[in-house]
Amino acid sequence: MKMEVGPVKLTTPLEDSDVAKLRAGDQVRIYGCIYTARDAAHARLVRLIKECRPLPFSLDGQVIYYAGPAPARPGMVVGPCGPTTSYRMDAYAPTLIEHGLKGMIGKGSRGEAVKDAIRRHKAVYLAAVGGAAALLSRRVHACELVAYEDLGPEAIYRLQVEDFPAVVVNDIYGGDLYEAGLQRYKRGAV
Amino acid sequence: MRDIYVSEIVEAVQGLCIEANCDIGDDVLKALGAAMEVEESEQGREAIRQIIENNMIARDDLIPACQDTGLAVVFVELGQEVHIAGGSLCDAINEGVRRGYVGGYLRKSVVRDPLRRENTGDNTPAFIHISVVPGDRLTITVAPKGAGSENMSAIAMLPPSAGEDGVKEFVIETVRRAGPNPCPPVIVGVGIGGTFEGAAILAKRALLRPLGERNSDSFYAGMEDELLRRINDLGIGPQGFGGRVTALAVHIEVMPCHIASLPVAVNLNCHASRHKTITL
């Protein structure tokens, strides 16, 4: 176990050296731009890649946040924006990682293909707290539509975040917080 | 007969949609506080801390606690001496949902068709369960349900020989398989008996019971306690980060069933347990 040293500050875009220092279980605080994308936006991005057409934003070193915010009240930068369940993006994530994506923020377990891509291409999977949408929206200081306005809450937005809390689930060394946590805390034969 | 005008129903449902999404009940906050006391995992404690802070922000600022403001599940107890005046009950409920979700800045999360998937734009239709009861009152409960936990729910048509142990295994296995996905700590709604559809509705109704309240039948209250202990022994923990608190409560509801059947439905609810009730 590492000594408790407080959350790791991560500033986007991420470099290989940024993800190399992260281990499953580390608390992080994210600063900079992150991009929202869910099922429908992922399907479109992967189709563009397969057709060798340009993407609406460069994936290089970027972080995608699996989130579909609720509408913002007047005067608010963004509506409540917690993470959505990540496995629905498993079919698309390895392709995006191969094309430069460095980080994903969501909640819930990933499939083997995603974990493998994280190891091979040096990326990281982070979990934000599901259902902490009101709190997380306060860490977003700007929100700009990037693409796919027709998708409504599933459009791609660029969020400018500060002190955005998340925890490392899957690191480049094969660490998995969900598996480690279960092993550590399960009791006897249930 | 007592007249209740549809305009009253529209207004009531509109308010319930907003209130349910923004104001997580005191019973949940109390259970989260108790969870903080027993949780040992550092990541688990941080998750609970964020959830509690989140719920206070949502309540104070009147913004939804979770961005998935759900499908509008509506339970109605309609007194048989009530006359709905000025229009249809279901139309009034849907209009209330429309106004609540559009005017209340709630997310619209309904697609018109399960395969062609075009958003209806106003979170209608509501999913309405009506019971006709004695009296001249109309009680409406709005229980917004997010997909994260709904997707991890399950039903089994067990053979009666599976018995009590078979039911327990199925409930525990459903929570184990769900892992971190349904946003633990969860509330586990269990419907035992009835028909295929009846068990599922029973499991959903079980989620409406205030946390801290046990089944009035001591046999099932004991089963709730045992299941809660065994689920928390799984070690999934808050948000699946590992820890002592995987579930805040297990609520069992039962009904008669066929001599050849033992239906069991498990409806999982995330920690953002949302439901508000009004009686007109």
Describe what this molecule looks like in 3D.
The complex is a heterodimer of chains A (190) and B (280). By secondary structure, chain A is of the alpha/beta class. Chain A has one domain (8-16, 26-185): fumarase, CATH 3.20.130. Helix content of chain A is 25%, strand content 25%. Chain A has helices at residues 16-20, 39-50, 93-98, 112-121, 133-137, 177-185, and strands at 8-11, 27-36, 63-65, 103-106, 124-127, 140-147, 156-170. The longest helix of chain A is centred in the N-terminal third of the chain and has 12 residues, at 39-50. The mean pLDDT of chain A is 94. Chain B has 280 residues and is an alpha/beta fold. Chain B has two domains: 2-20 and 65-145, no CATH class; 148-273, no CATH class. Chain B has helices at residues 6-22, 26-38, 42-61, 89-103, 147-150, 163-178, 196-206, 218-232, and strands spanning 2-5, 71-79, 82-85, 127-133, 138-145, 154-158, 186-194, 247-257, 262-269, 276-279. In chain B, the strands form three sheets. In chain B, strands 4-2-5-10 form a four-stranded mixed beta sheet. The longest helix of chain B is centred in the first third of the chain and has 20 residues, at 42-61. The radius of gyration of chain B is 19 Å and the shape is globular. Chains A and B meet through helix 5 and helix 6 of A and helix 3 of B.
List the helices and strands and how they pair.
The complex is a heterodimer of chains A (190) and B (280).
Chain A: E1 8-11, H1 16-20, E2 27-36, H2 39-50, E3 63-65, H3 93-98, E4 103-106, H4 112-121, E5 124-127, H5 133-137, E6 140-147, E7 156-170, H6 177-185
Parallel strand pairs in A: 1-2, 2-3, 3-4, 4-5
Antiparallel strand pairs in A: 2-7, 5-7, 6-7
Chain B: E1 2-5, H1 6-22, H2 26-38, H3 42-61, E2 71-79, E3 82-85, H4 89-103, E4 127-133, E5 138-145, H5 147-150, E6 154-158, H6 163-178, E7 186-194, H7 196-206, H8 218-232, E8 247-257, E9 262-269, E10 276-279
Parallel strand pairs in B: 1-3, 2-4, 7-8
Antiparallel strand pairs in B: 2-5, 5-10, 6-9, 7-9
